[in-house]
Amino acid sequence: MGILKFFKRYLFVTYLGLIEPFREIIAHRYLLLLLAKRDIYSRTSGTILGSSWLLLQPALQVVGFWFLLDIVLKVKFKIADTELAFASYFVIGILPWLFISEILMRSLSVLTEYGSLYQRSIFPIAILPLLPLSLSTLLYLIIFIITVIFVTGINAIGWAILTIILIMFWLIPFCYLLSIIGLFLKDIAQFFPFLITLVMYLTPIMYTPSLLPTSMSWVLMFNPIADMMALIHAAFLPNLTWEWINVWRPLGIWLILLGPAWVLFRRAEPHVREML
Question: Strand pairing partners for 77?
Answer without folding.
Answer: 84
